[in-house]
Amino acid sequence: MRGWATGEGLEKMNNQNPSKASAIINRLLSDRIIMLMGEINDEVASAVIAQMLYLQQLDARTPISLYIDSPGGAVAASFAILDVMEHFVPKIETVCIRNATGTGAVILASGSKGLRSALPGAIMKLTSVWGNGTPNEIQRFTNDLAMLLANATGQKLEVLLSDMEQEREFTPFSAQQYGLIDDVLS
């Protein structure tokens, strides 16, 4: 079951009590809930994508919920999730439960229009891409993420690039006004 636990807490529980972790994950999946918790890497992206495809195969008409508490992470892994979301048949409700930073915020904003939300205490933050790539690769990835955000939020590309460079942070209400989310849950 390792790999299906997409959060540090579930991963720890998975190591300590695999049957309990498995039961929790299966219960969440039966309710069409996927948890994207922690830093996004290849393993986390693979687990999220596998769960999305599994739920699509079970029922392509019923929406799924993607709960997010992530500081972002690897751009390639994040783009893999975003690509599946773009070509996914069921609607995807995205919910920020605590933190959506960088690519985590892009995934949050890329949920189905009208189904993107955050809890009242959540924080969302736009950031530029950083890492080990060449300057041209980093700029291309930043531009690609900004274009996805422009499509999701309705903001101008120049505004998004500036906000990403300044690492702009949002409360749920300011994120709603900006277009990152549609609703603040109460």
Structure notes:
- Strands 1, 2, 3, 4, 5, 6 and 7 form a seven-stranded mixed beta sheet that branches.
- By secondary structure, the protein is α/β, with parallel strands linked by helices.
- Helix 1 (8-16) packs across helix 2, helix 3 (42-58) runs parallel beside helix 4 and helix 6 packs across helix 7 (157-165).
- The protein is built from eight helices and seven strands, in the order H-H-E-H-E-H-E-H-E-E-H-H-E-H-E.
- Residues 1-5 have low confidence and may be disordered.
- The chain is 50% helix and 17% strand.
Explain briefly what this protein structure is.
With about 190 residues, the chain is α/β, with parallel strands linked by helices. The protein has helices at about 10-15, 20-30, 40-60, 75-85, 105-110, 135-155, 155-165, 170-180, and strands at about 35, 65-70, 90-100, 115-120, 125, 170, 185. Strands 1, 2, 3, 4, 5, 6 and 7 form a seven-stranded mixed β-sheet that branches.
- The ordered H/E elements are HHEHEHEHEEHHEHE
Question: Helicity, in percent?
Answer: 40-55%
Uncertain runs: 1-5
Q: Using the CA coordinates, give the radius of gyration.
A: 16 Å
Strand segment count? 7
Q: Treating each run of at least 4 consecutive H or I residues as one helix, how many helices? A: 8
What do the pLDDT scores average to?
91
Overall 3D shape: globular
User: Which structural category do the helix and sheet elements fall into?
Assistant: alpha/beta
Task: State the assembly state of the protein chains.
Answer: single chain
First-to-last CA distance: 33 Å
